[in-house]
Sequence to fold (700 residues):
Amino acid sequence: MKHYSSAALNLILLMLAAHSHESLANSLYELDKVVVTSTREEKPISELAESVGVLSQQDILNISPSHPSEVLNRSAGVYINNLGGEGHMTAIRQPISTSAVYLFLEDGVPTRPTGFFNHNGLYEVNIPQSERLEVTKGPGSALYGSGAMGGVINSISAKVSQQPRTKLDAEIGANDWQRILLSSSRPLSAHSGAGIQANLTKNSGFRDNADYERNNLNMRFNYLLSDNINAKNTLSFTKVDQSGVSSLEYDDYKNDVSKNLYEGDVGARNIEALRITSEVNVVSQSGDLYTFTPFYRHNESSMMPSWMVSYDANVRDTHFESFGLLSKWRRQFNNGGQIIIGMDIDHTPSSYEEFDVDRSDIIRDGDIITGFTKSDDLNYKYKATQTSTSPYLHLENQLTSSVRISAGMRYDIFKVDYTNQLDAPVDTSHIRPESQSVNYSHLSPKASVIYNISDRHDVYANYRHAFRAPSVSKLFRSGSNADTENLKPVNTDSLELGMRGLLGGAMSYELAVYYMEKTNDIVSIQNDEGRFSTNAGKTIHQGIELGLNGELSQDFSFSTALSVSEQTYGKFEYLYSCRDCESEILNFDGNYVDKAPASLGNIALRYEPVKVYGLMVELEMEHVGEYYTDQTNTNKYSGHQVVNVRSSYQATAQLQFYGRLQNLLDERYSTYTSNKVRTDVIEYRPGAPLSLFAGVRFSF
Fold:
């Protein structure tokens, strides 16, 4: 790793420094955290040969996140940026991008089908009221298929309490921040219980005309049919209304950070997402577990894509609903091993309409777009039904008391039946593929080994292969690019070595080193002819991740998440053309991948004085390292550090006051910095300035 050897050395020195504090051990940290993502049932992390970050309900309550990034970025190697409202991009062993290389789950069920990935997808999950968050880094296990390449984020819904319990959070803050979080849970009988949660959030944003509103409802009903049969039924509904927020060029970014080039409905989006699941677990007399999880999704979105306003303005409506079933059979062996055989089925009919917005119908006031008129002309109108069938096999065996191996494979079969509902266009700016069916199938193997050095330290190694089928919009929303229906799936091969354990009893650590190659990468290219997608070759991703958590004394504890990475292009080329230039094949072989931070860090120091019961004060520093802003490596963002402070005071058993001061030093920073190939005009997405939030929490 050419530029990052010093950063890697710092990680090692920090780990050694933590080891030198073993004499401060006053309590035992639990090595065997329970994780459900890998096998879809509770499993101690000591039996998992993969890097998984776990954020508990107490972590979430202490942070009180107003955006998913505020809690998820505490996991080593994870960066979620803030694009306004709850909009975001994700970078887990990948660059900051909109690419469909992640899988977002709620209680183990994908929130969206593979072909309908949304890089903002976490705003369809009620993060602040989750029971737990689990982040699997790198490709998922054999139980997860297309999309689980860079990582898997699984939100576990709140459990039903054994006693009646109600909690109310009321918050106010900067930029008209208002949030009400209500949760109530109680047993209904000796065999059943129910819980309900509501998240009502409004915010005007620190940018002009950047209003954001979400309404979230979660319901859960548990029922014990017998000693061997139980059911968990959940409903999740989310409605998001979000104004468009523009990037800024350098002068405005430095001198007028609140400026927004969009007003009214320009760049806005409205989302409604409904999911209903019913997980039924049956334990046979022999101890075998059968799990059946039928699910239903209904999703509607209407938006004016902000990234297309300048060159291909349009308004689009997308609708889909899904009917699916996750099923598996698991048998435990006497030696601690197990076999899991399963089948996932997902059937998703969808429709898409895109209305043109002519440049002459866009209203401007200087460089600010104040409005537009949606025409009756349709760029696209089609229906697409995606059906996926995915059998899988997962095996684990305890070879000795210290060595555990696992292996698995998954076979994904995709079919998309597409029907174009418009005639051929009169120009080539909106090519419409003819009605057709597209098929993909792929076998993804996995293998791993874990060695328990002692009851305090584990080492592991794994190989994971994954693939991603092209999304429906990449295939059939062609723009000016012909033959998009022939896009190839993306493949990933990942190797990982890791170690985790306890240092002295008061500290826990997890260290992971990984190497990943991604081939047939699908890239989106923008020039003055429009935006198009194409396969472009190979990228290489390698890095080191370190997580440290522990106590420094009776009053002080800390958490640290650090990573360094080097992401480069292999043979990576595509044909570039525009109106005012000659067409040529661009090859970036050997360049660094753009928008891939060289380092990430999150360090939090927490003070909970024994002599002042109920008080907590936390100082947090977030670090994002430098990265190139385009594939040519001619421009660079230097990175940033942001300091936050959080505090809470438990006044009584029922009453807690809390607050957070974000960006304490009022740092000017960008959450996403980029430029188009062949232009030096750099665009910035400014992060929020100094912001204060306060809340009160009632429990009764």
About this structure: The chain has a mean pLDDT of 91. Residues 410 and 468 are 13 Å apart (CA to CA). Helices lie at 5-19, 57-63, 69-72, 250-255, 472-476.
